[in-house]
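pls design
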């Protein structure tokens, strides 16, 4: 519930709030779109059609966690009453997994693009549309995120510090 207060993300959340406050100062009409997550209590912007709702969850994980929990509850209740269906689904999943071992590069690339078009990207797109008062495509958001993630840090560091930082980020994507 208090994930945004933990040490690991506290700095990012503070930066997020600074940006959120500056957006609300420059675009006061968006104040009605400001909502607080029902679960974690963090502030976020929502679509104007949801402005009157009080039961919203944030797009930073609470919404998906709630959806998964409800889905799990429904599925469990269904399969308790239909055990043959569960056996059939497990069998089909086993057969599909056996075929997926020979996956090609194109399908891997497609999965990468689908992962980029996740719920947080949709939220970013909606917020940018609200701020700029125009329609923004997913491709535009994808290009913007790629450009931002490629930018080098403005801090001056020794080359060794830079290499260590890059190695700590994780293995390179293939």
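designed seq:
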């Amino acid at each position: 519930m208090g994930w945004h207060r933990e040490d690991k993300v506290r700095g990012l959340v503070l930066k997020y709030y600074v940006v959120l406050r500056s957006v609300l100062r420059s675009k006061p009409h968006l104040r009605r779109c400001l909502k607080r997550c029902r679960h974690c209590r963090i502030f976020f912007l929502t679509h104007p059609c949801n402005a009157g709702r009080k039961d919203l969850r944030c797009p930073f994980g609470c919404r998906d966690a709630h959806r998964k929990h409800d889905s799990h509850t429904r599925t469990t209740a269904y399969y308790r009453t239909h055990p043959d269906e569960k056996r059939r689904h497990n069998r089909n999943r086993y057969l599909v997994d056996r075929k997926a071992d020979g996956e090609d590069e194109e399908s891997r690339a497609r999965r990468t693009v689908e992962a980029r078009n996740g719920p947080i990207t949709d939220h970013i797109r909606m917020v940018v549309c609200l701020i700029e008062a125009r329609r923004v495509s997913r491709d535009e958001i994808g290009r913007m995120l790629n450009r931002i993630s490629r930018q080098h840090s403005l801090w001056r560091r020794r080359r060794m510090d830079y290499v260590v930082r890059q190695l700590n980020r994780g293995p390179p994507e293939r």
